[in-house]
UniProtKB/TrEMBL annotation:
GO terms for cellular component: membrane. InterPro entries: ZIP. It is found in: Membrane. It is a multi-pass membrane protein. Keywords: Membrane, Transmembrane, Transmembrane helix. This is ZIP zinc transporter. Pfam families: Zip. The lineage of its organism: Bacteria, Candidatus Uhriibacteriota. The chain crosses the membrane at residues 6-25, 37-55, 121-146, 167-188, 194-215, 227-248.
Amino acid sequence: MTLLYIISLSVLGGILGLLGALIIVKRFAQNQERLMHLVSFAAGAMLSAAFFDLIPEAFEHLENVSAQKVLLYVFGGLLIFYVVEQLLLISHCHEGICDVHKARRSMVIVGDTVHNFLDGIAIAAALLVSVPLGLVTAIAVFIHEIPQEIGDFGVLLQMGMKRARAIWWNLVSAVATIVGALGVYFLAGAVDSIEVSLIALAGGGFIYIAAVDLLPEVHKELRRAHIFSHMVAFFLGVLVLWFLSATLHI
């Protein structure tokens, strides 16, 4: 049953996130402002998942471990995401179309695949702690995947890739979410309490995604109306994840 949950939630976080992105691109391709509000919403959701769910669960389940060590795991997760992005020379675009992107198409695909693999690790690690925590984590990943996949899809199209081929490669990279999740599932039996350490790392990764990848995109426009509307979208993301956490009693 646990394996079924892991596969199902990985599909929710990865593949359904991609499908959601394609639907939104088709519907709102000409409205960049609406697409950008998804970025603010996703940032609020990711931070909420980190601070309301993942990090508190790590503190609760890592027995006989100091708070400093738990926070080192969190910081380690932040560093992992930073290093991965820097080594792959990827700066994820979260708008429907990116004007400038120097990375080659292959690097865009590899970067997206690695990112999805790490998302799968986060989902499975959270699920092995508790089903509600896994569900909230998968929902947070799903919400983030939509603007991320919109950006990656736009980059590939701008680089001259055919639409059908861009969809195919994004689908292939989305499968990495399932691969990462399955890796944690089979490794958990061999390494004691690995899932608890991994949810702390995932918490740091979520903080990095929200603070470094998502929010800077929103700050490119400084009109008052823009700032206010994106603040509303951001806090809506916070409230939605907080409500899910409270409802599921995490």
